[in-house]
Write a structure and sequence with these properties.
With 224 residues, this protein is an alpha+beta fold. The protein contains eight helices and ten strands.
Length: 224
């Protein structure tokens, strides 16, 4: 899954000569937590987050009056508070890599840049959630079964043949990586809704032939 297919392309940016107040207002109005900072050519030169703004703002215990506070905030420039060494990702890299970088560095978003360093978009934690939801098929409901299978080559083939025999329509198959020395792993298979008698028979037969960890049914999610 490439970043290019899932990133947010309509990304808001500012130049480093703008005020901290402008950045704060823009983030608050748009409900975002950070802004990529670019030069006049659109190349990334830094990033400013709501945490940066909070750290640079006067304490609530300040003795400044409103006019003094307004003047102070308008005088602080983004270039004075932004992070200059920015971790980025490219469009042709994977969503998985983006998620790893965000998780390891405790980021809520990651700027996407082209080969010239220009901002092409942004990958947010919301975008990553969308990937999980879309590829899982959970919006369309269905039944998920978790099986414990051998890590040996071909262990999934009997399961697929079994599901085909029972006319189960597969929506999604997922698993997780395990060390090479582990002999088993969990595989998660989502199938489309079936008539209750057919599903009951499928469950009974599957539990006789395979090691079932759990079954769970998700209702169809209707967007209001």
């Amino acid at each position: 899954m490439l970043v290019a297919n899932w990133m947010t392309r309509d990304v808001l940016t500012l130049t480093s000569d703008r005020s901290m107040m402008k950045a704060s207002k823009m983030m608050k109005d748009k409900g975002i937590s950070c802004l990529p900072i670019v030069d006049e050519d659109g190349k990334l030169v830094g990033i400013v987050s709501d945490r940066d703004i909070k750290d640079a703002s006067p304490s609530k215990a300040t003795t400044l009056d409103m006019h003094e506070l307004y003047y102070l905030l308008s005088e602080v420039k983004i270039k004075d508070i932004m992070t200059r060494k920015v971790i980025t990702i490219r469009e042709d890299e994977t969503v998985e890599k983006a998620a790893t970088l965000m998780l390891e560095n405790h980021f809520g978003s990651l700027p996407v840049v082209d080969e010239d360093g220009r901002v092409a978009g942004i990958m947010t934690d919301t975008d990553v959630f969308k990937v999980l939801v879309e590829i899982s098929g959970v919006y369309e409901g269905g039944t998920q079964v978790c099986l414990e299978l051998s890590t040996e080559t071909g262990s999934l083939a009997p399961v697929l043949a079994f599901l085909k025999e029972h006319k189960a329509r597969i929506m999604n198959i997922m698993t997780h990586n395990v060390p090479e020395n582990e002999g088993v792993k969990n595989v998660y298979i989502r199938i489309r809704d079936m008539e209750k008698p057919e599903l009951k028979r499928l469950k009974a037969d599957m539990e006789q032939q395979f090691k079932v960890v759990y079954w769970t049914v998700d209702p169809v999610h209707r967007v209001v």
